Amino acid sequence: MRVRELTGDRVALTIDAVVDNPNNYRIKLKDPDVDLWLNGQHLGKAVLDSSVTLDKHTVRAYPVYISTTANGKLGPILLGGLGSFLSGKAELKASGTVVGQVGLLRKRFPFDVTEEVGLR
Asked: Is residue 42's pLDDT more than 60?
């Protein structure tokens, strides 16, 4: 995970997701239900900033761009984790589900990613 933007009430991330698609067809990822957490404090629900399509017969890393509006929570969370702010590192967690779709077929997949990220 990488922080793309951390300004005011907006947090934008790039998650490099390594995905194996052994199928004979491409799969579109859509309809994410993602909760973002910074140092154990809930930031809010995230949205997918761009579409992601998994290529057939591949194992590769796909950049997944998500963002959230923290609705006034970001300042207190950063101040509460002043040690993280001073060290320039924080624990960021993204968890939830995403739908994989091929034609009319849909399946929801869970995920849970926690990583230490730089704030500078």
From this structure: yes
45-83 pLDDT tens trace: 999 998 999 999 999 999 999 998 876 655 555 555 545
* CATH number for region 2-103: 2.60.40
Residue whose C-alpha is closest to residue 37's, from 46, 28, 29: 46
Fill in the DSSP letter of residue 56.
T
Alpha-carbon torsion, ordered 15, 96, 26, 21, to 10 deg: 80
Give the angle subtended at the CA of 73 by the CAs of 90 and 2, to the nearest 5°. Answer: 35
Nearest to 98 by CA among 86, 85, 77, 113: 113
pLDDT digits (tens, 9 = 90+) for 79-117: 555 455 556 678 889 999 999 999 999 999 999 989 887
Distance CA 47, CA 66 (A): 5
Dihedral angle sign, alpha carbons of residues 96, 6, 47, 98: negative
Query: H or E stretch including 94?
Result: strand 89-102
